[in-house]
Amino acid sequence: MIEINGIAHAFVTVSDFARSRAFYARLLPALGMKPVLDGDGFYYCVGGRTAFGIRACAPEYAGERFVQSRVGLHHLCFRTREREDVDRAYALLRAMDAKIVHPPEDGSWAPGYYSVLFEDPDGIRLELNHVPGKGLLADRG
Fold first, then answer.
1. Which one is the CATH code of 10-140: 3.10.180.10, 3.30.1330.40, 1.10.3720.10, 3.30.870.10?
2. pLDDT by residue (tens digit) across 91-136?
3. What is the pLDDT of residue 140?
4. Across the chain, what does the average pLDDT equal?
5. Coil, helix or strand at residue 130
6. What is the pTM of this model?
7. Which runs of E-coded beta strand occur in 59-139?
8. What does the CA dihedral 14, 12, 125, 111 come to, rounded to 10 degrees?
9. What is the model's pLDDT at position 125?
């Protein structure tokens, strides 16, 4: 058996790089991630055993919006260490005028699941959650 150690990185392609870079340059460092690559059409941060980046789309796709129900990405979720971090993130997202899909709320996905769901400037859904302990693996050893 191969045992993975998390997801090394995730990238999303954005339609308006300048607008999205401004959004992510405020959000990701607030999540403890540090920019390690910041160039023409490319922004990449690392922290919390996670790496996340954005890339500019090809010119013919500029201005398009993300459609969650298409084949491909549905949403990305960043896990926080504490429940209160979800609330702090919500305050930041409101200050950023991010589109909030749902404010912090308890969910039924796992025992103690607590999350906020929001969208980036292209409508890509992002979530921040907290699940205490081992979550769904608590009863599975």
1. 3.10.180.10
2. 999 999 999 999 999 999 989 999 999 999 999 999 999 999 766 6
3. 57
4. 93
5. strand
6. 0.91
7. 76-79, 99-106, 114-119, 125-130
8. -170
9. 96
For 69, phi then psi, to 5°, come to -90, 0
Helix runs in the chain, H state only:
17-30, 83-95
Scored b (16 or more CB within 10 A) or e, 42-69 reads ebbbbeeebbbbbebbeeeeeeeebeee
Report the candidate in 128, 52, 132 with the shortest Cα–Cα distance to residue 87.
128
Mean pLDDT of the region 44-70: 93
What is the helix, strand, coil percentage profile of the chain, to 5? 25, 35, 40
